[in-house]
Write a structure and sequence with these properties.
By secondary structure, this protein is of the alpha/beta class. The protein has one domain: Glucose-6-phosphate isomerase like protein, domain 1 (Rossmann fold, 3-Layer(aba) Sandwich), CATH 3.40.50.10490. The chain is about 45% helix and about 15% strand. It has six helices and five strands; from the N terminus they run ααβαββαβαβα. Helix 2 crosses helix 6 and helix 3 packs parallel to helix 6. The longest helix has 14 residues.
Amino acid sequence: MLDTLEGFVQQCATASEIGKSFGLPGSFIKDYRNIVCTGLGGSAIALDIARSYIADKAKTPLFVNRNYTLPDFVDSRSLVIAASYSGNTEETLSAYKDAKARNAAIIAISSGGQLCQLALKRWIPINKDTCRIAAEMRIRICIFSASDSLVED
């Protein structure tokens, strides 16, 4: 545990590099009406922190969802980030399917599971570098992956 705490700064730097290396594909537009991050547990906490971290830099409203369905305002001009470390979180999978039904742009942040399988079928970008990092880093990875992928320097 002490090693994990002592390595916190380096872990955040590693997580930031993972996020920066995960650029949005050219097919993604830059002017979404809103960005909805969906996840539970540690993923949702990380997304809340990421939202706070980029709040003063983001030009697009960012919302964190913890439900089976997405807010009514989500549509084809929305970007949905589905985050589940295991890739098998029931609520996140349901919200992913809801985003797909609404033709929203989707990014997945996961280490595997059903979320990655569903995303691969649709050529949805997946930040899978988390699978090489210890589980206790997942919150830092999610924070920096989300924030560094969404804020331009």
